Amino acid sequence: MYVTDGGLVLSPTDLVGHLECPHLTTLNREVAEGRRARPRADDPGADVVRRRGDEHEAAILAEMSAAHRVVEIPRGTGPADAEDRTLAAMKDGADRIFQATFFDGRWRGHADFLIRNDDRSSELGPWSYDIADTKLARHVKAAALLQMAVYAQRLEQLQGVPPQTLTVILGDRQQVAVPYVDVAAYARHAMRQYGQWLADPLPTYPLRVSHCAICPWKDQCAEQWHTDDDLVLVPFLRRDQRDSLRAAGITTVDQLAAATPAELDTVTRVGGSSRRKLATQARLQVGARSQQLPPYELVTPIEARRGLALLPAPDDGDLFLDLEGDPFFGDHGLEYLWGVSDVHDGFVSWWAHDPQAERRAFEHVVDHLMAAWQARPGMHVYHYAPYEPSRLKGLSQRYGTRVDEVDALLRGERLVDLYAVVKQGLLVGTESYSIKALERFYSPDGRAGAAVKDAGSSIVEYERWLADHDQQILDDIEAYNRDDCISTRQLRDWLEDRRAEAVEAGHAVPRPALGDGQDDYLKERDPDLVALEERLLAGVPADPDSRTPDQRARALLAGLLEWHRREARAEWWEYFRLRWLSSAELVDDVSPLGGLSDPQLLRTELRSGVWRYSMPVQDCRIRVGERVDHAEQEGRSSIVVGLDLERGHVDLKRSLANEHPHPDGVLKVGPIPSKVQETAICRVGSWIADHGFDADGPFRGVRDLLSGASPRLGDGVRLRLDGESGSDALRRVAPALDGALPVQGPPGAGKTYSGSHAVIELLRAGKTVGITALSHRVITNLLDAVMAADAVGVGGGVVRAVQKADDGNGSRHPSVLVTNSNDQVEAAIATGAVNLVAGTGWLFARPDIHVDVLVVDEAGQFSLANTVAAGAAAQSVILLGDPRQLPQPAKGIHPDGAGLSALDHVLGEHDTVPPERGLFLDTTWRMHPDVCAPVSELSYDSLLVPRSGMENQRVGGSDELAGAGVRWVPVAHAGCSVRSDAEVAVVSDLVASLTGRTWTAADGSARVLGPADILVVAPYNAQVGQLLGVLDGRARVGTVDKFQGQEAPVVIVSLTTSSAADAPRGVDFVANRNRLNVAVSRARSLAVLVGSPALLSAPVRSLDQVQGVNTLCRLVEYATGRVAAG
């Protein structure tokens, strides 16, 4: 940002900074206008990164110059002249343009490269240009995409068409191309809002955001916080809590510390226990201002396995672990230094400068920990914060090594997080609970003279070493790491003193149970599986880029062999994490249920009772019919027979025995055994290891799926005829299939109709068919559709069906045999009594289940591993689904490619299935063209179109809600997380306005809109509960997950969250491309988005977040008439 005679000149970097922190714009503008001095630049790390970036750019330029005609634009001639030279090079058709300059008098930017695109013409001629930038990072950052999208605005003006792609050339030379349409709307909105803000700037204040860590103004802002005694100085104080306190007149730390109970009670939007805890924290901080050492208080009463009760008995074999990691290295970052010290401060370390060395270092560390545990069964490994166990888990699964050892360390509870001990057990009068802040108590001068002071400077110094290879840099980093390990030991000792203090004060502080020896937790890998993995990987290069297609498929299959074990471990790790959360913490978690209270006996069933428990409105992943374990009650469980998350109650069937106390929280039981699936995958893998992917023989469908082969059809059968619908093509080619056929069915495209009729055609051709999916509900839905098609004569009574399902989960069709016996299903197949078999993946993974064709429904949510396991029962597989709707619920970390769903594996980086790989059902029978258009553009490469007649679907009236399409109703609010009363009021008014209007259907018929015709969707159950209460039956209300597969003339979406900072699961849950796609595409005529305008300008970090917020911005453009070309 700088000032010329024409006013402010802006750069994309200014825009990125403004999205992160408007106060940054205020400060930079004051510098540009001469009202403030620029902060002193003293960042050697930034200089290193800048130099390495220049070197990377120069290397890419040299490579391009060797293969293409490159025109370089000189930078010293002024921006207007440089843009003229850029345009001249574009008109001349240069292959590459280096340092292309864009300047419209207001925005100035320099793209590293313009890349000529001969597949798209423009006003320049039969070519156009796309944008590419070089970045040192090993993964795509949102800021880089936004920067290029700003350039693209001007490039579109110069060449008459927008670019197709924005390409980031990463530090490892990988090129990642992102469709411009995935960023464009977000960039347009951000630029427009930024311009409006600059024209009429609002007062700003330096709030704490993630950008503070790298901001040149951070010292000045910190000084202002202390001058103002601002509440931002209170640890763990959220922004919405700060806003609520300030609204109540409590604006400083001192005022919070002095607040009376009555004054605190006026802050109703902050929970009572949180108010008291924050006030105590503030009081301790104020007390620290007049003391040499900050005061602290013990959190009492001390609960088992919380706070100081997490400390095991000290042991001479205890170890202290600390890692140094660089998040900018490679696709997954790099843990470049692993340090371990012992109780005598003996220190050992392992360095890693590349992924192969990282794997070796990881293995050495795990072996070191396991050997210490074997030698001293009472030892533990101490660390500070969850980073270390997270990396141990992630690396064990990514590299497929030491998985059992890490699992044993976790289940044996050898790892002790001292941060959890501090956070749960103490209140300390410091502005931070970092280990550096706590060192004031036990080692105030321990780091005097250290060259590396904190984790951030460790990363900077390591980046500097990557450029300079100065051994002293590594020595300084290692000294810092050793200091961290020793500090962890000293902190453990200090906490032991606090525990003794609590005991002396009369508090019971139980130690955690010691547990069993490591042999009770350690399970060796199956030697047969290890041998199979070695056979599959024989001759496969370690470098993925060096592999042939066959080798890539073999490596992928090898990665699937232990998919279920990795998933199960992740579930067990999560299970044990949840078991010891407090009831309040269970409420805040998205998986379990917490806060159960006021049990009421509804009825008795034999020796069990069904009890209804009240609970706070919350989100969870528990479903009716599931058995759940009681939190903090070993061996106790119940069955969920009723659950109303929106109204806040759950019905549990449990023992009537008096000695069993009522639970205050429940969680899912451990994972379901999956041995049958693991064995099925090994069966496929063993055959492929012997015969390869292309040989004649069994498992053709899953072999072709893994290898990426196109669908194999009979002689002369084309996958799709000219002018043929996807649905007709599926019915025609299904009987000729000998392999894998992916079928992508977008919203309203008749996936279930097409699939059911294809099954009928298969049965008529004499094939035996299987139907499977992730849930009984989905299986039964497709099975019932097949039975309906058979009943109306399409199949002529050809179906003889059996379904493996529990009572209540199966089809109710009288002609379907529903059984819970695997043997009965196998016998029915063997005798030819049935030709259609329906069941979960467990059924089809059994070795004695065989069908000709397996149909996998909702294959966008069905893992590739489960598809291979179930597909072992069939010669061919048909995959029905849509990965652009709700994704598969995977939990583990898997080797590249092994963690995808079956259809995600097929689509890769595409939004729609490539025409040579499968069928795309391109006609929606649901959406009006004005609803379909944004859905098609944002999720389906603009290939999805409405059938004729959909344009007739309209809502009556003469106001802004009349007609069809997308509408945007902005509602300004602040501090709302999972509930917004302001949006509830607006939604209520919208429902009232829509109810009773005439709605015209596609066939021209009309009816009055009633409660069944309006869907109201919200992301959180707390908001759903509020909507249910206020709407009182005037509309159908639920989450996106509840309404997938349903439709209505009108859909209203309440986004709920005020801003990205308020989103409890991140902005990528609220503004999520897939979830928005599902929500909007439920609408036949009208989709109304209700939300905070601040969400449209949310700062983003990842590509997924960019695409999500961009989707929201593009929908708003459609709603407000700003429908520029993609």
Automatic annotation (TrEMBL):
Q: Does the keyword Transport apply?
A: no
Identify the residues that the record assigns to the YprB ribonuclease H-like domain, covering every copy: 319-495
ATP-binding listed as a keyword: yes
Recite the UniProt keywords alphabetically.
Answer: ATP-binding, Helicase, Hydrolase, Nucleotide-binding
GO molecular function list: 5'-3' DNA helicase activity; ATP binding; hydrolase activity
What Pfam families is this protein classified in? AAA_12 (PF13087), AAA_30 (PF13604), RNase_H_2 (PF13482)
- Name the InterPro entries for this protein: Coronavir_polyprotein_1ab (IPR050534), DNA2/NAM7-like_C (IPR041679), P-loop_NTPase (IPR027417), RecB_nuclease_TM0106_put (IPR019993), SF1_C_Upf1 (IPR047187), YprB_RNase_H-like_dom (IPR038720)
Gene3D superfamilies membership: 5' to 3' exonuclease, C-terminal subdomain (1.10.150.20), P-loop containing nucleotide triphosphate hydrolases (3.40.50.300)
List, for all copies, the residue spans of the domain called DNA2/NAM7 helicase-like C-terminal: 915-1092
Q: Which protein, by its recorded name, is this?
A: Uncharacterized protein
Q: Which organism does this sequence originate in?
A: Jiangella mangrovi
